[in-house]
Amino acid sequence: MRENLAMNTARPLRHAPDLVERFGALVVEALIDEVTLAPKPGLVDIRSRGAHHDLDWKLMCVSALALQPTFIEMARAGVEAEPMLALRERIGAIGRDGEARMLDATGGVNTHRGAIWALGLLVTAAAREPLDLAPQAVAARAGSIARVQDRHAPAITGNKGEQACLDYNVGGARGQAQAGFPHVVDVALPELVRSRSRGDSETAARLNALLAVIATLDDTCVLARGGPKALAEMQRGARRVLELGGAAALAGRRELKALDRRLVELHVSPGGAADLLAAALFLDRLRGEANHPSNA
């Protein structure tokens, strides 16, 4: 499965006639890379269900692949460059259809609702101006789209994350997007670059990027399940891992495993941070392909 996705993303960006299909494949590859990454604290990965009883790695991969047409449709909407309001409402409708597609594929389990929102905005923004794929630029365009009001969106969805925003006065996924994804461009991606620069493995670099987000994000997935105390304990634990050298250091790995055990005990999972890591991996892939010699 991973090999097939890699083959789909091997051709130059600027000259590919199937740009929207390629962008959709890049999103799915980022989602699969995120869920495969291990060991993640409290989250589903290739070795563990984390703090979940209804999710596992296989189901998450099934969901990601089922959503590829959704992300392709969103990218196509971006390429067609409709006026901003029409674009926002078009991708909103595509996203709601994507949620239905996800739930059909997973038997009613919410696997990627947050990712549809975050990655959907980013893939639309990328396709809107495919010659400017710098992460900050793509995230800023995504923020501009997110700030437009979708007149057809339900006023109240009943989602747990939405309720957590109301209960604890935090911005949640909507606030993160409308601000231009600061935890992606100012936290996750810089940590990814720092870790790679000092020689960490790619797995360790990605884990460190995730931990940097966990340490600072008011994750509504955690707030909804465990409240502010669980969130504060998780953030302290993530900071401690990074202080001990991160996932590449022996002491850091031990602390990471301890944090994972504790989050499972608390039955909390930083799903918001996981979505933002997937967003960072998507933007990182875009940056890498845009800088490929064949795209110069």
Structure explained in plain terms:
One of its GO terms (biological process) is prosthetic group biosynthetic process. This is Probable 2-(5''-triphosphoribosyl)-3'-dephosphocoenzyme-A synthase. Belongs to the CitG/MdcB family. With 296 residues, this protein is mainly alpha-helical. It has one domain (2-149, 171-295). It contains 14 helices and no strands. It is globular.
Compact overview of the structure:
This protein has 296 residues and is mostly helical. It has 14 helices and no strands.
Please give the alpha-carbon distance between the first and last residues.
29 Å
Compute the gyration radius: what is it? 18 Å
Q: How would a textbook summarize the main sheet?
A: none
Number of strands: 0
* Total DSSP helices: 14
Strand content: under 5%
**Could you estimate the helical fraction of the residues in percent?**
55-70%
Question: On the 0-100 scale, what is the average pLDDT?
Answer: 91
Broad shape: globular
Poorly predicted ranges (pLDDT <50, ≥5 residues)? 1-12
- Structural class, by secondary structure, is mainly alpha
> Domains counted in the coordinates: how many?
1
Which H/E pattern describes the elements?
HHHHHHHHHHHHHH
